[in-house]
Amino acid sequence: MKKIMIIIAVVTAVATNKTMAQNSSLQPVVSAYLSLKNMLAKDNADSAMFAAKNLFKNINDVPMEKLTSNERKVWMKLQKDLSYDAEHIKSTDKIDHQREHFAKLSQNMYKMIKVLNLNIDIMYYQFCPMAEEGKGAYWISEIQTIKNPYMGRKMPTCGSIKETLKNNTK
Q1: I need a surface site. Which of 19, 60, 74, 159 has the fewest CB within 10 A?
Q2: From CA 53, how far away is CA 56, in angstroms rounded?
Q3: Which architecture characterizes domain 2-121 according to CATH?
């Protein structure tokens, strides 16, 4: 079972890598986030834990010396919160708790992607009004189709695109 989860996480990470600029030192962070999002959408807490471990590692392994001064400034503001939520997600197999931290994680990932304009492909900022006990929550997706990481199989298509994050290529 663990081998299958690892294969799924690796395949998802490889598939989502195309969304990020090839030279960005923050690419592994966003790719791992997208993998985590996809595991939560499948209601797979164990795979989400694995994806969050990868995300946590990637957050802590960002090579600061390779970041531009603007990237470094933004990263320094967000790194601690990103790491905190990834650590909580990787430390539990309780999917509701994972999703609570994913909501906060998604807010900070959005700030990072938006401010630094990291994506080379279009990405989507999506929202589910039913998440977080009716308060609603956002997430970032590499695809237009709604695959809700908060509601999983219960309501897989609940949500809508709130913003299209244009690519950074001209």
Answers
A1: 60
A2: 5
A3: Up-down Bundle (1.20)
